[in-house]
Write a structure and sequence with these properties.
Distance between the termini: 45 Å
Number of helices: 7
Strand order of the largest sheet: 1-2
Order of helices and strands: HHEHEHHHH
Number of domains: 2
């Protein structure tokens, strides 16, 4: 049986009185993982076979500290690649920024109503976003 345990960033709820609660380094994450597994009475070293995350330096260090394999997120690598491509090609970067600014304007109900009268594509866009439907 394979089980995945998702984990988000450690957040400070404002009530913590120790430095580790507001430190976002590999050591703090490693202690957090060990504490969570201990709380649920599960042996971390036996149960955890790999860490699946982006290739951030904190995650690379965390995998080394935990002595586990790091399975890098391919979506993250793809995003990094496209960010580089977009940054290096000014016309593409300008086009994406223009489309982004137009899409931000269309998000308002008033502008969405105007778009709905101009094109049938707006129906697809709004329906997929869970917005207006006819």
């Amino acid at each position: 049986m394979i089980a995945l345990s998702p984990m988000g960033p450690i957040s400070d709820d404002g009530e913590a009185d120790d430095d580790e609660a507001t430190t976002f380094n590999a050591r703090a994450h490693h202690h957090f993982l060990k504490d969570i597994f201990t709380f649920f009475q599960v042996d971390f070293d036996t149960w955890c076979i790999a860490l699946i995350c982006d290739n951030d330096s904190v995650n690379v260090r965390l995998a080394k500290d935990c002595m586990k394999s790091l399975v890098e997120c391919s979506n993250h690598k793809l995003q990094l690649y496209f960010n580089t491509v977009i940054r290096e090609h000014a016309p593409l970067n300008e086009a994406i920024e223009l489309v982004h600014s137009i899409m931000m304007q269309v998000r308002t109900l008033k502008n969405a109503a105007v778009l709905r009268n101009l094109t049938a594509l707006s129906q697809l866009f709004l329906t997929k976003r869970g917005g207006l439907e006819n």
